[in-house]
């Protein structure tokens, strides 16, 4: 084997070993960052109020990572009816131009007891509305499709009440030093990023 | 010597892409961040093409680089024009990804930008090699 060929082989083997080590290390360090006390009487809830395990999502309806995480988050409650899931608004308005109005729209849906149905639709159809200049008409259409009163929905969406709720949640998230969505709080334990079904089962079992 | 630099650069790029593939495959490491960042870029709707993550295309492209460098300079069986074309295509695609970060995603991923720099350096190294081959530079 020539000197150049030996060099080539040596560099390639070294690179493969280093790359493998970096990947193995990075995938074994899942994001989890401390604890925080969250008022679980606030927010949009699903599941029993006396649940032993309460999971709060601080989410942004325009965040693709939240959309990707939504199905498994909803499944936690479906698979564990004794668990309560709660949604609080954390719109990343710096990078998602429709995040604020989307949060207000979700709050308006909650006024007509359709929050979770609206949550599903917003995440499923995120790519339809994320670039809209004014998504009001589209959101109103979703609301009507879900059986809501469209004019009441628009009025609630633009109300000071909805804006204040979103601001309250956003202020809490920022004061808690959250800087990513989705951020989940499971009985006070903070977990950042989407979780797989098995991750959720493990987290719920730990919290019980 | 410059061919060895090309090889080392392509392996650095391969490492970055492989790391990003592993990162996007783990849902707990994908999130949207205040002020943008890698998580935002990797979880954006532009992070996949035809259902495959852009980072995966990056891995394939860098493996192609390693193969072309080998057969162009270490075990010469190919004309270096193929490697030049491959590098130019990679550079153009990297610039397209940069434009998405600037104009569409409004967030910047340090790893993606590092990969862009690696590709640019590889183009520069190849440019010197080609000029040397043409006798435009003193040996």
Q: Would you write up a description of this structure?
A:
The complex is a heterodimer of chains A (208) and B (139). Chain A is an alpha+beta fold. Chain A contains 9 helices and 7 strands, in the order H-E-E-E-H-E-H-H-H-H-H-H-E-E-E-H. The longest helix of chain A has 25 residues, at 3-27. Chain A is globular, with a radius of gyration of 21 Å. The termini of chain B are close together. Helix content of chain B is 72%, strand content 4%. The model of chain B has no long low-confidence stretch (mean pLDDT 87). Chain B has helices spanning 2-25, 38-42, 54-74, 80-105, 110-133; strands at residues 32-33, 48-49, 52-53. Chain B has one domain: Up-down Bundle (de novo design (two linked rop proteins)), CATH 1.20.1440.130. By secondary structure, chain B is mainly α. Classes of the chains: A alpha+beta (208), B mainly alpha (139). Chain A binds chain B through residues 4-5, 7-8, 11-12, 15, 18-19, 22-23, 26-27, 30-31, 60, 63-66, 68-69, 72, 92, 94-96, 127, 130, 179-183, 191-196, 199, and chain B through 4, 7-8, 11-12, 14-15, 18-19, 22-23, 26-36, 39-40, 43-45, 66, 70, 73-75, 105-107. Strand 5 of chain A pairs antiparallel with strand 1 of chain B, so a sheet runs across the interface.
Quick overview of this protein structure:
The complex is a heterodimer of chains A (208) and B (139). Chain A has 208 residues and is an alpha+beta fold. Helices cover 54% and strands 15% of the residues of chain A.
Strand content of chain A: 5-15%
Distance between the termini of chain A: 62 Å
Number of structurally distinct domains of chain B: 1
Helix content of chain B: over 70%
Rg estimate of chain A, integer Å: 21 Å
Largest interface, per-chain counts?
A-B, 41 and 35 residues
Strands of the widest sheet of chain B, in order across it, are 2-3
The largest sheet of chain B is: 2 strands, antiparallel
